[in-house]
Amino acid sequence: MASIARRPDGTYRPRYRDEHGKEHARHFKRKVDAQRWLDEVTAAVQTGTYVDPKRARTTVGELADVWLAGKINLKPTSRARYADVLKTHVLPRWGNIALIRVTHGDVQAWLSELSDRGLAGASVRKAQGVLSGILGLAVRDRRLAVNPALGVALPPMQEKRRRYLTAEQLEALADAAGPGRVAVLVLGYCGLRWSELAALRVRHFDLLRRRVLVEEAVTEVDGSRLVWGTPKTHGRRSVPLPRFLVDELARTVVTRPADELAFPSPQGAVLRNRNARSAWFDAAARAIGEPGLTPHELRHTAASLAIKAGANVKAVQRMLGHASAAMTLDRYADLFDDDLDDVADRLDALRASSRGRVADFLRTGTPAEGSFEPSPEMKPQVREVETRGIEPLTPALQRRCSAN
Question: Core-binding (CB) domain location, by residue (predicted)?
Fold first, then answer.
């Protein structure tokens, strides 16, 4: 219900009740302004774009907790990253700001400020994504009519160039890794993530079929807590093992009980990335002249070695556990430059072959000795046909041709 009442002081007071029965009212000097405001509210209610003015005064920080609690589809590591972005970038700027006071221009200025402070393009995009997610929830809750964080200009990703080891470098890294030798070979030839390697148990290796089953992952959250779950794409996969690696595993891993961790720490616990790096990985990387190399870069090495060995994109996608072959192509497009060279070589050969056929077609000289010459019986017989044009001759035109 909506109505407009005139007050004793001469002003007009339009009022209405929302879907929850709560009354809202304002005051105007002119009745036409009061009616216009009431019409706008009525139209918003009917079109589903109505926004409760009082709920729009909720702060970004208050709604941020609700938004993060609702991300039940996130893995613990992803949730921890979102929480860190909130704490570091979003809440210091927007935590005490009412939703209704967040404007598109202010969001753009904030992103520009983050870029000017030297924040990487990917980090700026993450900050914008978190703020946009909170404001998107405000729109769905009818606290805001539109999301002011959408449509802003974002910096480029500036993706760091990937480092790929050669097979010789990978062997040298494994030799220098000491107790981590087999782990390095599995990372470099099978393309596992560290969380997947740390979760492997002896029973996951099927040496007869030359496969390793990846069905679990263990991640470190907040620098201390270990969380077990599924791999990144939530799916299990079977990864091929090179024959030489089967021999390595047969001597070092599968001789232990099936449920034991395949690559435990010296204490028999889960092998943590930072502990392995400080114990043997970083020193091995420096020994081969690749300081700063990370275990995750061996995943890139596995992709490059597989492609160099002739594996197709679909096989590489299945080995790495990517969601699609398109993702593999986008991520490792630089590894397919040799395919472009092969295309150019094939085009060269096609053109050379076609020019040779054209030259043979145009050649009118005497056939060379030993070349094939069809016999008179095999040659097609050409019957002479009188040519009189496209259209049939009319009687008058035929008499004129005969006279000539």
Answer: 58-139
Instruction: Report the residue count for the chain.
Output: 404
Q: Hey, which residues does 98 pair with through a beta bridge?
A: 59
**What crossing angle do the helices spanning 121-140 and 60-69 adopt, rounded to 10°?**
90
pTM: 0.67
Q: Within 13 Å, how many C-alpha atoms sit on residue 146's CB side?
A: 6
Cα–Cα distance, 171 to 348 (Å, whole number)? 38
Q: Are residues 194 and 296 in contact, defined by beta-carbon separation less than 8 angstroms?
A: yes
Closest among 187, 162, 178 to 298, alpha carbons compared: 187
Query: 43-85, pLDDT tens digit by residue?
Result: 666 555 666 677 788 899 999 999 999 988 888 888 888 999 9
d(CA 60, CA 51) in angstroms, rounded, equals 16
Regarding beta strands 217-221 and 211-214, do their DSSP bridges make them parallel or antiparallel, or are they unpaired? unpaired
